[in-house]
């Protein structure tokens, strides 16, 4: 059978028309099988906690199973790459952090994906307060004590991190730059392990998410020295910000958000955004956010979330270069 140019042109038009009709039909039936939310970190950390809250509420709303799968490693690179290369059909998603999408490209020079271009932004899911903590019986009473000790003996004061390039590592590295000190940063396999290291006395400090350390603070096992954001935490109203503690130029915060592979159908993206925004208003989730020190998201549409991702990627590029932060 011979194909003329006219025949091929007609076939192309027909294919395009079919695709245009099929996309809404596909979205209308979404989801009709298990949806997987990947967390690029170990279980029990704040990203994992938020992912499981959202997954549970979406499962109820859809009457369809939504599972969370942990794929930790390389400060979130392994899990992020897995989702970036997954089919763009809305059934494999990533509960990302600011580190996944705006930091790693400036720390790892040989990524096999582009954290900005290779994902479809859906919605920010939470803002995250960070706190500098030490053991309850630590001699450090405030941030000035930490700085004095670190300056007296460079590399002697130890700080746990969730892994090279993770948020606690970045927060500690920014502290080193702002205070002009050298800490000994000790990487662990995840946030939970880093917190446990401080509790056990293996390390002296941890710059970590409030959701991970507030229960230990309330239980009298950890001592908070400073909140890392620009304002005090409602959960720790008596704890000063880092600026109030003596480092006016220091500020650090994190966020979580849901993304999928690039080029997801718009109808699927829109449905996900609408349903995620709805479950995030659930009274149970709002109550747990308050307990965990998580903030309600501000970039709840794909466009707003994409703008936040790009702005933070630009900010971290300049910050990492100025502070000479490296992942190794």
From TrEMBL:
Secretion signal, residue range per the UniProt entry: 1-27
Keywords: Signal
InterPro entries: BUG, Bug_dom1, TAT_signal
Family matches, as PROSITE patterns: TAT
Protein name: Tripartite tricarboxylate transporter substrate binding protein
Pfam families: TctC (PF03401)
Family classification: Belongs to the UPF0065 (bug) family.
Gene3D superfamilies with a match to the protein in the record: Bordetella uptake gene, domain 1 (3.40.190.150), Periplasmic binding protein-like II (3.40.190.10)
SUPFAM superfamilies assigned to the protein according to its UniProt record, in alphabetical order: Periplasmic binding protein-like II (SSF53850)
């Amino acid at each position: 059978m011979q194909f003329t140019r006219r025949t091929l042109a007609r076939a192309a038009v027909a294919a395009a028309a079919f695709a245009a009709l099929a996309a809404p039909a596909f979205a209308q039936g979404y989801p009709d099988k298990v949806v997987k939310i990947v967390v690029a970190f170990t279980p029990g950390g704040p990203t994992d906690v938020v992912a499981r809250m959202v997954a549970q509420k979406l499962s109820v709303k859809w009457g369809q199973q939504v599972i969370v799968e942990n794929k930790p490693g390389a400060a979130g690179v392994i899990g992020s790459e897995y989702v970036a290369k997954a089919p763009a059909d809305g059934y494999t998603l990533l509960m990302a952090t600011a580190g996944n999408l705006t930091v790693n490209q400036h720390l790892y020079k040989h990524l096999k994906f582009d954290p900005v271009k290779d994902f479809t932004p859906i919605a920010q899911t939470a803002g995250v307060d960070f706190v500098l903590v030490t053991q309850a019986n630590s001699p450090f009473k405030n941030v000035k004590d930490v700085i004095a000790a670190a300056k007296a003996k460079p590399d002697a004061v130890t700080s746990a991190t969730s892994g090279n390039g993770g948020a606690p590592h970045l927060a500690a590295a920014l502290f080193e730059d702002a205070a002009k000190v050298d800490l000994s940063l000790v990487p662990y396999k995840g946030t939970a392990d880093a917190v446990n290291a401080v509790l056990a006395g293996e390390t002296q400090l941890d710059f970590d998410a409030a959701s991970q350390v507030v229960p230990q603070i309330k239980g009298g096992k950890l001592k908070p020295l400073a909140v890392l954001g620009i304002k005090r935490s409602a959960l720790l109203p008596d704890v000063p910000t880092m600026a109030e503690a003596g480092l006016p130029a220091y500020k650090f915060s994190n966020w979580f958000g849901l993304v999928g592979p690039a080029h997801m159908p718009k109808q699927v993206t829109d449905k996900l955004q609408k349903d995620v925004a709805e479950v995030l208003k659930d009274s149970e989730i709002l109550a747990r956010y308050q307990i965990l020190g998580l903030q309600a998201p501000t970039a709840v549409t794909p466009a707003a979330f994409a703008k936040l991702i790009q702005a933070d990627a630009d900010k971290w590029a300049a910050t990492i270069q100025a502070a000479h932060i490296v992942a190794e």
